User: What shape does this take?
Amino acid sequence: MKIRKILASLSILLLMSCGATNPFTGKKTLSLVPNSQILPMAFQQYNQFLGENKVVKGTSDAEMIKRVGQKIAKASERYLNARGYVGYLKDYRWEYNLVQDETVNAWCMPGGKIVFYTGILPIAKTETGIAAIMGHEVAHALANHGQQRMSAGKIQQVAGAATAVAISGKDQQTQQIVGTAFGLGSQFGVMLPFSRSHETEADEIGILLMAIAGYNPDEAAELWKRMKANSGGQAPPEFMSTHPSSDTRIANLTAWAPGAKAEAKKFGVTTFK
Assistant: This one.
């Protein structure tokens, strides 16, 4: 009886959490944690991060990051307005910073708080390469991937608690076996594929945004060829990773580029940088 009550509660939680809509796909998404709670936390954490790291200011690279970010933000607003999502970005507080760090990384927090590390600049290579990265990172924020991951984490916790209750009367060996199976199953069968789907979605949205911003979407695949070369083949197997393999990304981005160009033309973009 207790197990049935817990599972029933979990089902209700799942239904309640699917209240947001992805403006790019039209699909319902997990929204157990509201953006009204997430954005203030994100802004605070961003400011704290900037205070603890060396922010590069006044250089040509820093200005390029800001310039590209502004163009991608404008493209995002144009696209969302055209799809009927006027005001979708009203709570965003766009900010673009370059941080002195040799890590090959860039990220965008919920609400449009963006950081590029200097270590990724040689791989980005050009302003168009920066735009490919920027479009991808901004896409994560626009599609509320952070909100979805936080919501999925809460549901995973509830499911784990339900499993623990269900096996509480079993012997210790059985509890260990079932607990381990749940942990591996939820990680490799649910959470990692969930993250990979977000990365793929951000790739597809990002290549569209960079095209609408006037950047050549063909460069996205070229960027990932350089990313692959930089990794030296050290990436884990795709099923064990939060990200799709470089080969998967390159193939996807190559296939999506013509469609991104066609969509950009609807916004008056006929030439690409």
